[in-house]
TrEMBL record:
Organism: Streptomyces nanshensis
Domain Histidine kinase/HSP90-like ATPase: 19-122
One Pfam family this sequence matches: HATPase_c_2
Region: Disordered, residue numbers: 74-94
GO molecular function, one term: protein serine/threonine kinase activity
Listed InterPro entries: Anti-sigma-factor_SerPK (IPR050267), HATPase_C_sf (IPR036890), HATPase_dom (IPR003594)
Protein's name according to its UniProt entry: Histidine kinase/HSP90-like ATPase domain-containing protein
Keyword set, alphabetical order: Kinase, Serine/threonine-protein kinase, Transferase
Keyword Transport in record: no
Length: 131
């Protein structure tokens, strides 16, 4: 397993920093997964900043079978994260982030931890490189 962690506290552009570390960490992963993992990590950090005021950190765990992305924030309200996000309407300005996470990740969940909560997204690599 390879692990990459980025402390996001106090960064002016946490989503940009997240995209960079994810792209660098995924150099050994199947290329067809990179954009999905980058987009999900970006969305999770954006949600943490928008709804909790700040993302604490982002981590990636890389395995031969897939990648696990975790984003932590200080808000302990896991009920604020819907387990089955609905697609946003055509006129909605927001509401697409968790729907994208749900569609792109193989699995995801939210849980409390010592800092507040973490959202975990898992990407499984499959034979033939598709998911």
């Amino acid at each position: 397993m390879t692990r990459a962690v980025l402390d996001l506290r106090g960064l002016d552009a946490p989503q940009s920093a997240t995209r960079g570390i994810v792209r660098r960490a995924l150099t050994q992963a199947p290329v067809e997964f990179m954009d999905d993992v980058v987009l999900v990590a970006d969305e999770l950090v954006g949600n943490a900043v928008t709804h909790a005021g700040e993302a604490v950190d982002v981590s990636l765990d890389l395995y031969p079978w897939g990648t696990v992305v975790q984003v932590r924030d200080r808000d302990r309200d896991t009920a604020a994260v819907p387990p089955k996000p609905e697609p946003a309407g055509d006129e909605d300005v927001n509401g697409r982030g968790l729907f994208l996470v749900n569609e792109l990740a193989s699995a995801w969940r939210v849980q409390t931890d010592e800092a507040g909560k973490r959202v975990v997204a898992v990407f499984l690599y499959r034979a033939g490189g598709t998911h």
